[in-house]
Design a protein that fits this description.
single chain, globular, mainly alpha, 17 helices
């Protein structure tokens, strides 16, 4: 569903953001459903399997962050090229972006396959969990090529103003993954019972289908991808442009799963039940923040095009409105998690201790989700303004300066609840800092223009 680029730079702000965001919700939901469905069915196999898949979460997120960082860089640049440069330049740029993403993820795959045991031992996995982790990751790593194409390709499509198609595609294939999971995990009908391996195969199969369809959209439907190999020096020049935004963005995204990995190590001291619960809440809270995540993705595009036209007043209004929306969503999520926290825990595990830890987490951290949303929005806006180092700085403040130190110190002082209070404190403080920073930056640029 293509839009006239003038819609983004001239249309009513709230209407533009709404019409761009709601289709994105389906795409983001599709990504999170992949993870939630795997967690749901694997939880039926027992606490050991649930703990194993929880250990994989930060590593899976790390690899996804590499691809997503490149996708953010591509979206930020394409959103400006699309309204200011010949279409052929956009096509060549898109192809060379895909090449970069494939090259990066290939290196990650080779390293990952050869470091499964040492990495997860470092995270605190026990021998019995390592066996299960190997079963999952040895398959998952081979499917990383099918992770990168949709993340980068859909970013390019969204940058043109079409947020509908990528969202629907991701949702449809998430449903396919959900349908395939129980057959491969539990051995229903003619399928063998593969356990945690089945979850990995279902995920890779679904992503392979998404990749094929995404390439079809880029090449055939939208004519946005021109497979043309230029000289290496020209390709390298394109990669440098992408890295100017993608580098800091990817580092910022990578810092998050690395920090979560450290906290997973901290929480592993409290037992496999604590690890299993942390894996549940980490994915469920991301699912709850779908609207904010979708809006953040849109804000990079909205900011990029309006920044290109120097529409500073529009950016001021959009920033203020999205921050208010984030705080309202935070209150809504607080109410939901307060009411349904125990039911959420029981949905994923029958273990009483896992459920109780899940309830404790949401009882504390859910008060801070509105401020976590402000952090996400501010980071996205800075990327759209071609200020990726500012975006990276916000991430560093949240994860390295606040999140990891607070969870470690408080866990030593008051036990496992200290980890949850650390997450709460990091979200509140970074939300306040990021809002003040982005507001003052846009006001200063407006005054200078």
């Amino acid at each position: 569903m293509k839009r006239d680029p003038k819609f983004i730079i001239e249309g009513p702000i709230n209407k533009v953001l709404f019409k761009l965001t709601w289709p994105m919700v389906f795409g983001i939901m599709g990504i999170f459903i992949f993870n939630l469905i795997d967690t749901f069915f694997i939880g039926k196999l027992g606490v050991d399997n649930l703990a194993a898949i929880s250990f994989t979460f930060p590593v899976v997120a790390f690899v996804g962050s590499v691809a997503m960082g490149i996708g953010i860089g591509a979206a930020a640049i394409v959103s400006k090229k699309f309204v200011s440069e010949p279409r052929e330049e956009v096509r060549i740029f898109a192809f060379e972006t895909i090449l970069l993403a494939l090259f990066a993820v290939f290196i990650v795959m080779i390293i990952g396959l050869n470091t499964i045991n040492p990495v997860f031992k470092l995270l605190g996995a026990k021998p019995e969990e390592l066996i299960l982790i190997n079963d999952f990751m040895s398959i998952w790593y081979f499917g990383t090529i099918f992770l990168v194409i949709p993340l980068v390709g859909n970013g390019i499509i969204r940058a043109t103003g079409d947020t509908f198609t990528p969202g629907i595609v991701m949702m449809v294939f998430a449903i396919f993954n959900a349908a395939l999971d129980p057959f491969l995990i539990f051995g229903i009908g003619p399928f063998p019972k593969l356990g945690i391996k089945g979850a990995a195969i279902a995920t890779v199969s679904s992503r392979a289908m998404i990749s094929i369809f995404c390439l079809y959209l880029l090449i055939k439907r939208d004519n946005l991808l021109h497979i043309h190999f230029r000289s290496f020096s020209k390709i390298l020049n394109t990669w440098k442009k992408i890295f100017s935004i993608a580098g800091p963005s990817a580092i910022g995204l990578i810092i998050t799963p690395l920090s979560i990995a450290i906290v997973t190590k901290i929480i592993s001291v409290f037992g496999k039940e604590a690890v299993a619960a942390f894996g549940i809440v980490s994915k469920v809270e991301l699912f709850g923040l779908i609207l904010i995540t979708a809006l953040s993705s849109v804000m990079t595009i909205f900011t990029g095009q309006n920044f290109g036209m120097r529409n500073w007043k529009r950016l001021e209004i959009a920033t203020r409105n999205t921050v208010i929306f984030s705080l309202i969503m935070g209150v809504f999520l607080l109410i939901c998690y307060k009411i349904f926290a125990r039911d959420i825990g029981k949905l994923f595990s029958t273990d009483t201790e896992v459920v109780e830890i899940t309830v404790q987490y949401f009882g504390i951290v859910s008060f801070s989700y509105g401020f976590q949303g402000i952090f996400q929005l501010s980071s996205a806006i800075f990327n759209g303004l071609n200020k990726p180092l500012n975006s990276l700085s916000i991430v560093i403040i949240r994860m390295i300066v606040l999140y990891v130190p607070l969870t470690y110190i408080l866990s030593r002082l008051i036990g496992i609840k200290g980890i949850f209070w650390g997450v709460f404190g990091a979200n509140i403080l970074v939300g306040i800092v990021s809002y003040i920073w982005i507001k003052k930056y846009i006001q200063r640029q407006h005054n200078l223009s």
